[in-house]
Amino acid sequence: MKYSPYSEQIELLPYLAKWVLLASAVAVLAGTASAFFLFALDWATATRIAHRELVWLLPVAGFVVDWLYLRFGREVEAGNNLLIDEIHDPRKIVPLRMVPLVLGGTVMSHLFGASVGREGTAVQMGGALADQVTRWLGLDRTDRRIMLMAGISAGFASVFGTPLAGAVFGLEVLAIGKLRYDALLACTVAAIVADQVGLCRGVRHTHYAIATIPPISLWPLLGVGLAGIAFGLAGKVFADATHRLGGWVKRHIAYAPYRPLLGGLFVASIVWFAGADRYIGLGIPAIVEAFRLPLSWHDFAAKLGLTVLSLGSGFKGGEVTPLFYVGATLGNALAPLLHLPFPLLAGVGFVAVFAGAANTPIASTLMAMELFGAEIGVYAAIGCVVAYLFSGHAGIYRAQRIGAGKLRHVPEGMALGEVPDYRRRLKARAVVQRLRLKTKESGDK
């Protein structure tokens, strides 16, 4: 065969056509599902606001949803973590019933007043629908991995209206400190097409306005860096508290539907008697306020607490929008202390707490630029990177793998949820070694 300097480029044409078609198919399914989901959320939120007494049905709603998962959805209960595990270690096709279960469960959570988000639902629907295309076409394990990543990107992009962030999120969320580019084309196409499908279906995303971004200078950069430490710690507290509460509840309440029944009773009582309606649901109005006027310093803590209680007790929904709320209101509270404009710090906090909790600093920086404008890019990058570092080896997705540890060494390939046990073993080993050394020294004397 005659050698051609363009042979590789020619061979790329069928590859390009293949993944444009496959990713577009995934995007149409995910974008349509996300549009339906967003309209359902709007209805649920409006209905709950109009009928505040619905919050007293939250325990019953939680019981019903968890009973349905116990009866029909044990295989899909792990949610986002199931998708991440299937990408790293493919075993079997994600059941299609993940879609109606997580969609219905999340809408009920919002209708009756749990403090949960929405990205988890969109990502799970995108991944599950992508896996159905994999099954229909009989794709191999390598292609299936890329399809699942494309489904994650499509779901994330379509629910937030951020295609660039969605494309990178599907690559970045899988492993801390490591990106795989074999799915870059598919994730990019899926994210862009899914976002456009949602817009064509009539979806309109919330607009967050930052009037002015201060010019790049020493103090604003340092101030955002200091705030990034707080954002990272907030993300760590959120992730750790949610996992610990969830673990405690599972150890002490054996029958799964009783967990949200009890948690829902606590949430409903707090909302009704403390007037905490502001801190349930998505909380979009409060997030918008954080860009416009000074808010109470405790808004972020109240939202964090109610979200931990809701998710930790088993209610279905995502973590990201509550993280946006926590970040925006925490940034708003820190702005006077750091002598920075509160719209700027609210915007950086919006994405930085998410970056720390999800270990996705690149996707979070791109999200800031898509939502608030390219001018915030430098500040957002500093806030997200610092938050990512200071959140440590914690995160909302326990199935994330370690690609490259942060400050302390953690074995590559270890799941994030295994890190605490690994560190406890290291500490125990160090204690044993010190005891042996002391015993040896005593014997020598």
UniProtKB/TrEMBL annotation:
<keyword id="KW-0472">Membrane</keyword>
<feature type="transmembrane region" description="Helical">
    <location>
        <begin position="20"/>
        <end position="41"/>
    </location>
</feature>
<dbReference type="Pfam" id="PF00654">
    <property type="entry name" value="Voltage_CLC"/>
</dbReference>
<keyword id="KW-0812">Transmembrane</keyword>
<dbReference type="InterPro" id="IPR050368">
    <property type="entry name" value="ClC-type_chloride_channel"/>
</dbReference>
<feature type="transmembrane region" description="Helical">
    <location>
        <begin position="337"/>
        <end position="358"/>
    </location>
</feature>
<feature type="transmembrane region" description="Helical">
    <location>
        <begin position="216"/>
        <end position="239"/>
    </location>
</feature>
<keyword id="KW-1133">Transmembrane helix</keyword>
<feature type="transmembrane region" description="Helical">
    <location>
        <begin position="183"/>
        <end position="204"/>
    </location>
</feature>
<dbReference type="InterPro" id="IPR014743">
    <property type="entry name" value="Cl-channel_core"/>
</dbReference>
<dbReference type="InterPro" id="IPR001807">
    <property type="entry name" value="ClC"/>
</dbReference>
<protein>
    <submittedName>
        <fullName>Voltage-gated chloride channel</fullName>
    </submittedName>
</protein>
<feature type="transmembrane region" description="Helical">
    <location>
        <begin position="260"/>
        <end position="280"/>
    </location>
</feature>
<feature type="transmembrane region" description="Helical">
    <location>
        <begin position="53"/>
        <end position="70"/>
    </location>
</feature>
<feature type="transmembrane region" description="Helical">
    <location>
        <begin position="378"/>
        <end position="399"/>
    </location>
</feature>
<feature type="transmembrane region" description="Helical">
    <location>
        <begin position="146"/>
        <end position="171"/>
    </location>
</feature>
